[in-house]
Amino acid sequence: MTPDPSREWYVYFKEQEMGPLTETVLQNKVADGELDNTAFVFTEGMSDWTALDEVEFLTQISQSQGVVETRSPDAEPLRVVETSRDSLKVEKVGKETLSSIPADTLSSLEQKLDSDVQKNKASRKPMMLRWMLIGFVMLLLVGLLLDYSKMIPQLKNEGSPESTTAPTDSPNGDAAGSTTNIAKPSDLDVIWAELSSLRLSQDRQGPPFRLSSVLLSPDRPIITGAVSSLIKTDRIQLVVYPDLARSLMERPRLWWFDASLVDGYFVIGPLNIEGAPLPPGSYKVMAQSMGKYMGTVSFEVGNFPTGPDLDVQMKGLQNQRAMASAEELKVLEGLFRDFDALYESLRRDVVRFAIRGGARRAAWTKAMQAWTVAFSRTFGQLSDQSALTFYPELRTRLDSLAKELVKVQGLMDFYSQNGRAGFEKRAGRRYTEIWNSLQKDRDFLKSEFLAQASQTQTEATLDEDRLKTRLLEKR
Asked: What are the pLDDT digits (tens) for 218-230?
């Protein structure tokens, strides 16, 4: 390999990864003694990480600075004592002993020594990240088992007498009392191979994050993943949701995660439904970091049924989904009642304080502090589940109406500071006209709730654009 100042390098040294570094910067680090022969380097065109002393022009720099050890011509020669994957042992041999060894045997020993040295260098490839990931996963699995063992008595106490005496089948065909599956050592090797390949890749095509195909505890999945080394971040936000075209969930839901990265790797989960296993089907994971959308990937849980088996299970889900949609409608009706209370509270405070000018400014400010807290408590979590719903129109209208109410509150705060003339100049209309428009939207939504009360919804909908917008807000 010849020097190229425009080339970019990655360095693994003392359990830390650096880069990209320009070749000039790398040469300076070698020349200044900041890197030694225990460092590994990687650049485009290499098939894998390479020891620093195997890159000829970098070795020449380190030799010129006295970094590479050299042996004196008078030093006693060495003899191979023991070789293995992780070690190479040698001992000194006296000159008289060396001279007694036949020339062909000596040549063979020299070749073996050179071969073992090369194997030893290869075995020194960065392994710390691998063991960190495996250790992190195993600790998480131990914690999961401890939590699950504590959960079992509670689940039995809450169940019916029949459910505590014998295991029953869940709608997806799994035994309700099935145990958590622990990953085998071979599974951890697969996880490492899949995720480390992304970390080493310079490919800019496709999503810059990946999930392992191996799910730890498949019934209640723990998902391992990695972010491309091209993305420089220490946190990633994700949302997991079912693919409604291949889902046996009675009540579709979303799971939100704010995951820390450890050298580019992350773990999320376990995914479950109030402690119960996930039903078979397809699930998707959408991710973002630092306000930048990273794309969507998917994974499978269990064996999704087909043909007549699927028809039977889908029929069995209709009643459960009808009940779930009725419960969601009650939640939305409760939110609408909360909106009504906030609406009336704000209207009273506007009449009592805001439109009376500076004399009541302090009272208005105090009242709005309490009002803002009440509003945030009521609608702060509305958007987290609003993308996945049996009633997309009602959720959208209620969300929009809540935002409109906040906007009106801001305008009336301006009225309190600047008086009617200043307000009308800015708003372009009287405050009574603004309230009439808001009341008209409120009355329309109320009629929509009344209409939905007489209908049964059994199909949920998912607005992925809305979900993406909500995810990008989580920073």
From this structure: 789 999 999 999 9
Measuring CA to CA, which residue among 386, 385, 391 is closest to residue 455?
Answer: 391
DSSP assigned state of 379: H
Quick check: bond before 270 cis, omega within 30? yes
How does pLDDT run across 298-316, given as a tens digit for each residue? 999 999 998 999 888 888 8
Q: CB of 320 within 8 A of CB of 332?
A: no
Same domain flag for 299 and 314? no
On whether the CB atoms of residues 417 and 361 are closer than 8 A, the answer is yes
The stretches in the chain having pLDDT less than 50 are 65-100, 117, 120-125, 148-182
Beta bridge partners of 298: 284
Note whether 56 and 101 are same-domain residues.
Answer: no
pLDDT (0 to 100) of residue 391: 84
Please give the tally of structural domains in the chain.
Answer: 4
* Domain range enclosing 132: 128-160+178-304
pTM value surpassing 0.85: no
Q: What tokens appear for 304 in the block?
A: 């999704």
Q: Check: CB of residue 8 under 8 Å from CB of residue 21.
A: yes
Q: Which residues contact 23 (CB under 8 A, 6 or more apart)?
A: 3, 4, 5, 6, 7, 8, 9
* 208 and 231 co-located in one domain: yes
What residue has token string 């071969």?
115
Residues 377 and 402 in one domain: yes
| Domain final residue pick, 287, 304, 321 | 304
207 and 88 housed in the same domain? no
pLDDT at residue 35, as a whole number: 85
